[in-house]
């Protein structure tokens, strides 16, 4: 019953109507209007003894640098690293305790058109020996782009969902306590320049390469705003001549985004997840004339241990000897053969597989065999 439910779900997902309209904004993105990744290195303080301790040299160096910037001079060593640098082999010196400090990497995504003063959500991840960041506070951290420029500054208290508890050799861990998040924890300091305001043409890139989709978008724009307004560049890009005035350009793009077009039919695909046994078959999958049979061979070996104690030659007891009896049994399930007629569709494939009671793993094997024989008119993707 579970197999039938799963396959019917696949049918309902695949059997869309032949033609449906989508908005241009759902099919495309504007070239140059993109997000940018930011990254920075910082320190989380205020931990409850779950930090890097004094075994991570760069944590100690970073803390010392931060204190120097704040005008605090540290006379003694702050870690074993400082002791080794000074040629001291003993640990008798009074070192600064780093149990409450952890080195972290801070990441954030800078959205397009983000302006200085706006805030970003940041992710914080431990990179040292810290066992938990719960209760910690990220001190001021610079977030840089790939060009090395500072685009945001992050600081604030962490929200950590993971929990780790250990006692008497037992340990319970829920989630990841070494990673946290700070909602609105970064303030944007620099704006990314976008070519949207300067270029003569606005280029729309479709999410998937398809000549039919780009042609439909070009035709819809020219029909709405006049011939020559848009032209297809390739299977992905459509160049649109936009007004020079920035306000008029924004309104123009708003109208284009809400145009409805009929996208091209996606390529026939069969996606197989071999780990979970999930099979997704698109509506356009076809199979040529072929016959398929799928059986299952079961080999069962059973062994029993027995003891033999024969009588002696002169009336005495014989020598006791253990031995094993093995039984070999081979069973092959009878599976009917089913035939695919030329050009059968998704429902025919699923019905035929259901008739022989194939499991998801068997269905994967059947699809693989059909592809190898050249009968499956679709791209087989195994993930």
Structure, explained:
The protein contains 8 helices and 23 strands. It has about 375 residues and is of the alpha+beta class. The strands form 8 sheets. Strands 3-4-5-10-7-6 form a 6-stranded antiparallel barrel. A 4-stranded antiparallel β-sheet has the order 2-11-13-12. It has a 3-stranded mixed β-sheet with strand order 16-15-23. The radius of gyration is 34 Å and the shape is flat. β15 (about 270-275) and β16 (about 280) form a beta hairpin. Helix content is about 25%, strand content about 35%. It has 3 domains: about 1-20 and about 265-300 and about 325-383, no CATH class; about 20-35 and about 205-260, no CATH class; about 40-190, no CATH class.
Short description:
The chain is an alpha+beta fold. 23% of the residues lie in helices and 34% in strands.
Task: Show the helix and strand layout.
Elements: H1 2-14, E1 22-23, H2 24-27, E2 28-30, E3 36-45, H3 57-69, H4 80-85, E4 101-110, E5 119-126, E6 137-144, E7 150-157, E8 163-167, E9 170-174, E10 179-188, E11 201-206, H5 211-225, E12 230-232, E13 237-241, H6 246-257, E14 260-261, E15 269-273, E16 278-281, E17 286-287, E18 290-292, E19 297-308, E20 321-332, E21 338-340, H7 346-355, H8 360-373, E22 376-377, E23 379-382
Parallel strand pairs: 15-23
Antiparallel strand pairs: 1-14, 2-11, 3-4, 3-6, 4-5, 5-10, 6-7, 7-10, 8-9, 11-13, 12-13, 15-16, 17-22, 18-21, 19-20
Largest sheet: 6 strands, antiparallel, barrel
Q: What is the average of the pLDDT values?
A: 79
N/C terminus separation: 25 Å
Q: Could you give the order of strands across the largest sheet? A: 3-4-5-10-7-6
Radius of gyration using CA atoms only: 34 Å
Low-confidence stretches: 1-18, 87-94
Structural class estimated from helices and strands? alpha+beta
- Portion of residues within helices: 10-25%
User: Count of DSSP E strands?
Assistant: 23
């Amino acid at each position: 019953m579970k197999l039938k439910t799963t396959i019917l779900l696949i049918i309902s997902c695949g059997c869309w109507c032949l033609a449906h309209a989508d908005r241009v904004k759902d099919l495309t993105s504007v070239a140059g209007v993109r997000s940018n990744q930011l990254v920075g290195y910082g320190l989380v303080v205020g931990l409850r003894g779950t930090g890097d301790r004094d075994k991570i040299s760069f944590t100690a160096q970073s803390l010392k640098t931060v204190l120097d910037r704040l005008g605090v001079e540290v006379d003694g060593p702050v870690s074993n690293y400082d002791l080794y640098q000074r040629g001291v082999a003993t640990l008798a010196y009074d070192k600064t305790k780093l149990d409450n400090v952890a080195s972290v990497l801070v990441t954030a995504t800078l959205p397009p058109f983000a302006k200085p003063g706006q805030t970003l959500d940041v992710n914080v991840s431990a990179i040292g020996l810290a066992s938990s960041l719960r209760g910690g506070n990220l001190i001021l951290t610079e977030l840089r782009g790939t060009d090395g420029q500072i685009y945001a500054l992050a600081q604030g208290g962490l929200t950590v969902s993971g929990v780790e508890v250990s006692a008497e050799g037992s340990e319970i861990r829920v989630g990841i306590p070494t990673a946290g998040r700070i909602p609105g924890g970064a303030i944007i300091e620099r704006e990314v320049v976008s070519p949207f305001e300067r270029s003569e043409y606005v280029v729309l890139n479709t999410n998937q390469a398809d000549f039919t989709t780009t042609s439909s978008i070009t035709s819809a724009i020219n029909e709405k705003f006049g011939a020559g307004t848009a032209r297809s560049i390739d299977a992905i890009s459509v160049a649109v001549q936009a007004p020079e005035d920035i306000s008029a350009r924004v309104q123009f793009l708003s109208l284009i985004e809400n145009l409805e077009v009929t996208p091209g039919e996606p390529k026939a695909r069969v996606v197989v997840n071999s780990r979970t046994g999930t099979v997704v078959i698109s509506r356009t999958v076809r199979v040529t004339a072929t016959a398929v049979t799928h059986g299952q061979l079961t080999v069962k070996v059973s062994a029993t241990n027995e003891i033999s104690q024969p009588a002696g030659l002169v009336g005495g007891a014989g020598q006791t000897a253990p031995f094993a009896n093995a039984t070999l049994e081979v069973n092959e399930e009878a599976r009917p053969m089913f035939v695919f007629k030329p050009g059968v569709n998704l429902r025919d494939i699923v019905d035929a597989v259901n008739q022989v009671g194939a499991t998801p793993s068997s269905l994967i094997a059947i699809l693989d065999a059909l592809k190898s024989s050249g009968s499956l008119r679709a791209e087989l993707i195994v993930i």
